[in-house]
Amino acid sequence: MDFGYNHAQAILTLGYRDGDIFILSEIYGYEKDNEEWIDIANKRGLPKNRRIWADSTEPDRIKMWRRAGYKCQPVSKEPNSVKSQIDWLKGRRIFVHPSCKNTIKELSQWKWKKDEKSNTYLDDPVPFFDDAIAALRYGVEEWRKDRKVRLNRVEERTYDF
User: Fold this and answer.
1) Has this prediction a pTM greater than 0.90?
2) Please, which residues bridge with residue 14 across strands?
3) Rounded distance between C-alpha atoms, residue 108 and residue 88, angstroms
4) d(CA 135, CA 137)
5) Model confidence over 99-129: pLDDT tens digits?
6) Mind giving me the DSSP string for the chain?
């Protein structure tokens, strides 16, 4: 989950299988407070038994989600975590359910910073219109840091010639 108000709030339901990421559903929108988002999540049937990784800079919002019965917890932001998350995602296929229109729109408009002097693209994303992508980055943290998943990735790359 990436919290927002003027920026979009994005909540993605994700799946992981055989090294692939599946974006199964999204809750996405603007200008709603936390109580309104929790009400929407309840009405849409967001599972309360699944872990929600959320932006750690919003501990008060995380606390409200927990009070509402969700297993919401902060994602730990380490140095270079955004780059590490993106690099991990780049090594996977990502399937997006057609109903996730905002996520599809964000992914299709995502851009990389460009060094105008050398006319080359940098390894840094342009931080614009990336709320669902932030939710995706947070949501894969458990898989990215899981040793078995990392080993699985190495094995897949070994046999994927």
Assistant:
1) no
2) 23
3) 19
4) 5
5) 999 999 998 887 666 778 887 766 666 666 7
6) -B--SSSPEEEEEEEEETTEEEEEEEEEESS--HHHHHHHHHHHT--SSSEEEE-TT-HHHHHHHHHTT-EEEEPP--TTHHHHHHHHHHTS-EEE-TT-HHHHHHHHH--EEEETTTTEEEEEE--SS-HHHHHHHHHTHHHHH-HHHHHHHHHHHHH--
Closest CA to 68 of 94, 46, 90: 46
- pLDDT tens-digit profile of 16-33? 999 899 999 999 999 999
| Domains detected in the chain | 9-159 (3.30.420.280)
Measured in degrees and rounded to the nearest 5, phi and psi for residue 73 equal -145, 155
